Amino acid sequence: MVDFDTIAARLVTETEEAIIYATRDGIIRLWNGGSEKLFGYTAGEALGKSLDIIIPEKHRKAHWDGWDRVMESGETRYGSEPLNVPGIRADGSKMSLEFSITILKDDSGKIEGVAAFLRDVTANWDEKKALRIRIKELERQIEGH
């Protein structure tokens, strides 16, 4: 017989994708191995801390404004549509992240917290940025002829 609890625990633990669970106050309560690899914090360093440890300072206000809207409304578009945001590693280096979230509610419908599924898309982001720059250069060249 299949033990789905064991399978679910192994999926969270063994996946390369970062999985983070934070309570409605933004405190990290789950930090898997993928999160350790992506952000450079061990679970012991991240658990019990604010999500601020992975959000660049200049983006925190926008993050928390959006977080508060989700906590009030119980709705987000980022469950089905991934969001691209900047992130910061333990060493202070920045990266581009893509993530989706799942809102977890108790039996009465009150939000308990949010699970986020994150991946590093820095290489893809940098490539697209370089292509946009190159396209603008080529457009300027064409306009000059």
Pick out its properties:
PAS-assoc_C; Beta-Lactamase; globular; 5-stranded antiparallel sheet; alpha+beta; transferase activity; PAS-like_dom_sf; 145 residues; 41% helix; single chain
Describe the protein.
GO terms for molecular function: transferase activity. Residues 10-74 form the PAS domain. The chain has one domain: PAS domain (Beta-Lactamase, 2-Layer Sandwich). It is 41% helix and 26% strand. It has helices spanning 4-14, 33-39, 43-46, 60-73, 122-144; strands at residues 18-23, 28-31, 83-88, 94-105, 111-120. A five-stranded antiparallel beta sheet has the order 2-1-5-4-3. The longest helix is centred in the C-terminal third of the chain and has 23 residues, at 122-144. The termini are far apart.
Please specify the SSE layout and strand pairing.
Elements: H1 4-14, E1 18-23, E2 28-31, H2 33-39, H3 43-46, H4 60-73, E3 83-88, E4 94-105, E5 111-120, H5 122-144
Antiparallel strand pairs: 1-2, 1-5, 3-4, 4-5
